[in-house]
Amino acid sequence: MTKKTNVRNLGLFAALLSLTLGATACGADSSESAGETGSTEETQTITLGIIPSWTDGLSTAYLWQDILEDEGFEVEITELSEAAPLYTGLSNGDVDVYPSGWPDATHVKYMEEYGDDIEDLGTYYDNAKLTFAVPEYTDIDSVADLTGNADQFDGRIVGIEPGAGLTGVTKDSVMPTYGLEDDYELVESSTTAMLTELQSAIDAEEDIVVTLWKPFWANSAFPIKDLEDPEGALGPVEGLHTLARTGFAEDFPEVADMMANFTLDDEQYGQLEDLVVNEFGPGQEAEAVDQWLEENPDFVAGLQG
C-alpha cells in the first residue's frame, strides 16, 4: 500500500502562527465539508501534530495515518519543536489532532491555558509516568540520593527540550523538593542530545542522571534504571490522551469515534515504538506500521466499536 506522507517541519512558534487557513483541513474549507464524509469526491484532510523526538506521538501518528488513509482521508503530519506551539496549534485550529497528549499532569499548564479550545477524545494508554534514570552500574537508587553527590554527576542533570512538561516538573518540583537547585544544573537541550550524552556516558562507564519518561523505547534500549521518587515530586502515573481542536468531533464524527475506541497496552505500545523508531527508522514509518498491523490483525476492527 502506498503512503502519502506529507510532513511539514515548522519548528518555531512563529512559523506555526503563519500558517494560512488553506494550509490545513481545519480552516473554513474543512468546516464547510463537516459531516459529509463519503458524500463528496473531494478528499478530506486531517492534520496530526507531533514533536518528532517524543516517540509516543510519533509512533501513534503514523499508525493513525495508515488507518485513516485506508478510510479515504488524506493525512498530514506536522512536526513542531515543543509542546507550547503544538497546544497553540490545537487551540487555534492549525492542527486537527495531537495523538499523544499528557494533559493529566505533565502538560496540565497547557491545558489550563488552551483547554477551552481543545477536545479530549479519550485516554488510549493509562500507565505513563515521568522518571529520572541512571546507568545500571551507578550506585544510587533514589532521587533523594542525588543530594550531596553532585560531584559524582559533575553537577549536571541532563534534560530535554526547554518547553517540555518534564523540564518544567524537574525545575519547579523535583529540584526544590530534593534540594538540588544549588548543587545541580538542569541541562536543557533536546531529547536527541540527551540520548547522545547518555550513550556516551554508558560507553565510557561514567555516571550520568537524565530525565526520562514511560512509555519510551530508550528504557529498554539502554542499560538504565529508574530512580525511586519517595516524595512523588515527578508526579503521578497518568494517561496519554488523544486531543483534538474544538469542533473536530462534529466535523469528523466517525474518526472521533475511532479515536475514542483507541487503546494500547504495554506490549502493543512497546512493539509499535520499537518497530517505528528502531527496526525501521526514519523514512520507513509506513512499513513499520504495516508490519505492526499484520502482527495485530484485529486492532483496526476494534476501533469500529
UniProtKB/TrEMBL annotation:
All copies of the ABC-type glycine betaine transport system substrate-binding domain together span 45-295
Q: Which GO terms describe its molecular function?
A: amine transmembrane transporter activity; carnitine transmembrane transporter activity
* Subcellular localization, as worded in the UniProt entry: Cell membrane
Task: State any GO CC term.
Answer: ATP-binding cassette (ABC) transporter complex
GO BP field? choline transport; glycine betaine transport
Q: Determine the domain of life of the protein's source.
A: Bacteria
User: Which PROSITE patterns does the protein's record reference?
Assistant: PROKAR_LIPOPROTEIN
Output this protein's name.
Glycine betaine ABC transporter substrate-binding protein
Q: Which organism is this protein's natural source?
A: Arthrobacter echini
